[in-house]
Design a protein that fits this description.
CATH topology of the largest domain: TerB-like
Keywords: Chaperone, Membrane, Transmembrane, Transmembrane helix
Strand content: under 5%
Order of helices and strands: HHHHHHHHHHHHHH
Helix content: over 70%
Protein name: DnaJ like chaperone protein
Shape: globular
Number of helices: 14
Pfam families: DnaJ (PF00226), TerB (PF05099)
Number of domains: 3
CATH architecture of the largest domain: Orthogonal Bundle
Structural class: mainly alpha
InterPro entries: DjlA_N, DnaJ_domain, J_dom_sf, TerB-like
Length: 277
């Protein structure tokens, strides 16, 4: 197989950089042209907001419907695929071992056909300059912040890709920490999965946790009162009427409705389980 032309790669990288900064470039030029040099900082600030909005818009759930029918599953897979690409590219190149590790995660998540192709595209978006790792982590945290198992699984996916070559470069570790900050996790959250991956015989990757208790963000040992409280809190936070009143987008309202339905199914499953115990 012929190697890619290094010059073409550099030009492509430069083009992506220019595209990533396009809002700042145009807004900065406009500010100087219309108002003078002193307005350049304001123009750059406006351009930065525009660029950030363009970057995060690429990861709207509605664009990736093939990943999963459930909005939460879609958010989970989207975040995993894109951040794996970000981590893999952090040291400057993506190795065949890192691609294989990402493929193993896609297997665990049972992604096939169009869903897998979309996940591969998201992996590619994660490799691009200006990838909003922190912002995507924050979006994930809003959906799964109380679900420790879901967050731990995501971290293990990232670690599996990060150490696929048998080592952890400094740039890759910094990329991991950046995602962790968005997830609201301390750097120590990497210690156990890194130790398992590098010195403990490897990680055993798990699919998306779907326990009804995990969906409600509680432990199986929780009391009936704690379960009811968690259910009411979750429904109150994601109820479509509340989201509409807050001026959220139609996509967010739909996702909230799906989350409420999932919470109701989880509550019914727990009631059936406890009634039969």
């Amino acid at each position: 197989m012929a190697r890619p032309d290094p010059e073409l790669q550099r030009l492509r990288h430069l083009a992506l950089r220019v595209y990533d900064w396009l809002g700042r470039i145009l807004a900065g030029i406009a500010a100087v042209w219309l108002f003078g040099l002193l307005w350049l900082p304001l123009g750059l600030a406006v351009g930065f907001a525009v660029d950030r909005g363009r970057r995060i818009a690429a990861f709207r759930l509605a664009r990736w419907n093939a990943l999963a029918a459930d909005a939460d599953d879609r958010r989970y897979i989207l975040t995993a695929a894109a951040t794996m690409g970000f981590v893999a590219k952090a040291d400057g190149r993506v190795s065949s071992a890192e691609i294989a590790a990402a493929g193993e995660v896609f297997d665990v998540l049972e992604l096939h056909g169009l869903a897998r192709r979309q996940a591969i595209r998201l992996f590619g978006l994660g490799k691009r300059p200006g990838f909003p790792a922190y912002l995507l982590g924050r979006h994930f945290r809003r959906r799964f912040g109380r679900n420790e198992a879901a967050t731990s699984c995501l971290i293990e996916y990232l670690v599996a890709v990060a150490v696929a070559d048998g080592r952890l470069p400094d740039q890759t570790e910094r990329a991991l920490r950046r995602v962790l900050r968005g997830l609201g996790r301390r750097p120590e959250a990497l210690d156990t999965p890194l130790r398992k991956a590098l010195f403990g015989g490897g990680l055993t990757l798990q699919p998306i946790p779907r326990s009804p208790y995990l969906l409600l963000g509680i432990e199986p040992t929780a009391s009936d009162a704690e379960i009811s409280q968690a259910y009411r809190r979750l429904v109150g936070r994601h109820h479509p009427d509340r989201l509409q009143a807050q001026g959220m987008s139609a996509e967010d309202v739909r996702a909230g409705a799906e989350r409420v339905m999932a919470a109701r199914r989880a509550m019914e499953a727990i009631r059936r389980e406890r009634a039969s115990a």
